Each structure stands twice: as structure tokens, then as C-alpha cells.
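Q: I'm writing up a methods section and want to include an example of the input and output format. Could you take the sequence below and give the corresponding predicted C-alpha cells, formatted cleanly so I can copy it straight into the document?
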Amino acid sequence: MLVGAFKSSDDSEVGSATSDGSGNFTITLTTDGTGLDGYLKAAPPQLLPTYLYPPAPVTADFSGATVILLSQSTANLAGTIGKCLPNNTTVTSFVGLEVLDATGSDVEGATVTATGGGTICYGTGLEGSPGPGSATVADGRAFVLNPAPGTITVGATKTGTTFTSHDIKVFAASVTETIIEP
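A: Here is the clean output for your methods example:
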């Protein structure tokens, strides 16, 4: 599968790589000491394109990124089985969020925010699928189903913790993922 790295400012490609059979890949970029404000894009055949945004510009090696790949039918099923959307609703855009603390651990009990509309659902702990709720459960996950395409701001709140909001782009008929952290 081809994975590309892009600059957020103008969506220009700055590097690419092909993953191995396990999905592992390495992209080497020259940044001249400045952080890269960008994202990764994976577009495997028969699956929705997936965009991965880091929580801040990347200034050093970034490893262990997980890219969730979904088919259109799986995205639709996630919304209806999780009772987040009415039955037979087509998911036109899917945003996966993971809320982490300063140590990189999942945050239970955080409430996420997202501009751009859509329906916010939370991880159920069952394969990370979306479900009804008012805050993240043990897996720290939340989902925004059908936000409007374009730039949205995502963030989280929890008593005693301040999280940093950041912008991501949502594309139609795609999956966008990011991490929210302090």
C-alpha cells in the first residue's frame, strides 16, 4: 500500500513509501530543523482513503502510528450498530480521535469537541467501535461521524487536565485520524 506524507499548508506531497505485508513503512524527510506541519495519507484499493494527522508539527522521528482502514460498508455499520446514527445512514466522513495523557496513556472520562458538525460517539472498548456515551471510556477513543468536509478543530476537556486543540482537514468519503494530548 502506498503511503504519502503531505504538507498541511498546501497539500503538496513531500515523501512517500510502500508498506510491507504487515503495514510497516518508513518515510524519510529533510526538514532543515523545522517541524513539518503535515499528515499521512493511505489509499488502499477497495477501502476509504485514510488521513493521519499528528497532534503537533513533527520535529523528530515519529513511529508506531496506527492507520485505521475501513471500507464504506464498515464505516456505515459502525454508525448504526453503535446507535450513533439512524439505521441505513451513509457515513460520508469518519474522524477517529484518541485522547492521551502526558505519558501517552489513554484518557478515560474526557469529553471531545469538534467544530464542523457531525455526531460525536465514544469508543466502547469492543474493537474500538463507536457507541453512545458522554465521555471516552478506558480506550480513550471518540469518533465524529459525518462532519462537514474542510478544516475542523478538535480538542478535549477533562477536569484537572488541559488538552491542546488543533486543526485537521476532513475529506469526503474518507477516514481522518488524530491524537489529542496535553
